[in-house]
Design a protein that fits this description.
The chain has 10 helices and 7 strands. The protein has about 280 residues and is α/β, with parallel strands linked by helices. It folds into 2 domains: about 140 residues, 3-Layer(aba) Sandwich (Rossmann fold); about 100 residues, Adenine-specific Methyltransferase, domain 2 (Orthogonal Bundle). It has a 7-stranded mixed sheet with strand order 3-2-1-4-5-7-6. Helix 4 crosses helix 7, helix 5 crosses helix 7 and helix 5 runs antiparallel to helix 8. The protein binds S-adenosylmethionine. The site of S-adenosylmethionine has 22 residues, from loops.
């Protein structure tokens, strides 16, 4: 009997939290987003602005297609999918408190190996994510990760957490690419969650330096066209975005729901409450 219960628990698809800190991450909003969606009878899920994967980690679809433009991020998911135990072992090897010279050595190493699809690079990625200033991922003009040191006593995920994430990833396909590369793979009835970098509210608010390509006003318009094409094809589409007039008018034929989240804004020390939108066609 005990054995049976154990097997059932192992099979249960848990709702999980992200194992990385990610600017614009939807962890704090995810319950509100889910409470506004009917996710029954959906087999295939696409999340092409993956980041911290808040949506995927809470969900339970038969198959998920996860992608992002950041190859180091995608490598991290790939390595956790394959070998969470080794990732955990390597992370626990780091001496704490972390010093700034140790941080900058690992940052240099990370930049030398940028794009490598290896376990070592995934470990460096998680280390930097947990010890950098505010956990943001920002690159300079030559594509080098340039976030300064921030946290001497990082909290890494537990082994159980990494194993749970790994198990959930077994039903996922990972790739690094532009979001619109999924265009020809989606089919009627699929769910697509789009969570792009947000437009600037001002010169300092919101964050859109994840990759070398900044997501500007034209990119937002292209994304709105992409969402419409997918919607016309019969896909279920949900979009997160900032509560701005421009964004509202791009999606004027869609259902728009307001929500609010505490976000770190670079000109302020504390997190402030900003309004966001959930935009959907079902
Ligand atoms: C707002 S974050 C996603 C946050 C995620 N939903 C979460 O909860 O953590 C946006 C993501 O889009 C990625 N990105 C930026 N431009 C992209 C593009 N053109 N195609 C695909 N991904 C892109 C960034 O690397 C970043 O991870």
């Amino acid at each position: 009997m005990k054995e049976k219960i154990k097997v059932n628990l192992e099979k249960e698809n848990k709702s999980l939290k992200p194992f990385i800190r990610w600017a614009g991450g939807k962890q704090k909003l995810i319950n509100e987003i889910f409470s506004n969606l009917d996710l029954n009878n959906i087999d295939r899920f696409f999340e092409p602005f993956l980041g911290g994967a808040s949506f995927f980690l809470k969900s339970d679809f038969k198959h998920s297609f996860l992608s992002d433009l950041n190859p180091n991020l995608i490598n991290c998911y790939e390595q956790i999918k394959n070998d969470p135990q080794s990732i955990f072992n390597e992370l626990t090897e780091f001496k704490t408190p972390v010093t700034d010279s140790m941080y900058y050595d690992i940052r240099d190493e990370f930049n030398r190996h940028s794009g490598d699809q290896t376990l070592e690079q995934a470990v460096r990625f998680i280390f930097l994510n947990r010890t950098s200033f505010n956990g943001i991922y920002r690159v300079n003009k030559s594509g080098k990760y340039n976030v300064p040191f921030g946290k001497a006593n990082p909290a890494f995920s537990s082994l159980d957490h990494l194993k749970d994430v790994s198990q959930k990833l077994q039903s996922a396909t990972l790739s690094f690419d532009y979001y619109d590369s999924i265009e020809d793979f989606t089919q009627q009835g699929d769910l697509i969650y789009l969570d792009p970098p947000y437009p600037k509210l001002s010169d300092t608010a919101y964050f859109n330096h994840y990759t070398l390509d900044k997501f500007d006003q034209n990119s937002q318009e292209d994304l709105a066209n992409f969402a419409k094409i997918q919607s016309d094809k019969g896909c279920k589409v949900v979009i997160s975005n900032a509560d701005l007039e421009d964004i509202r008018s791009m999606y004027k034929d869609w259902e728009i729901i307001e929500c609010s989240a505490y976000r770190f804004i670079s000109c302020k020390k504390e997190r402030i409450k900003v309004k966001e939108l959930i935009i959907k066609n079902f």
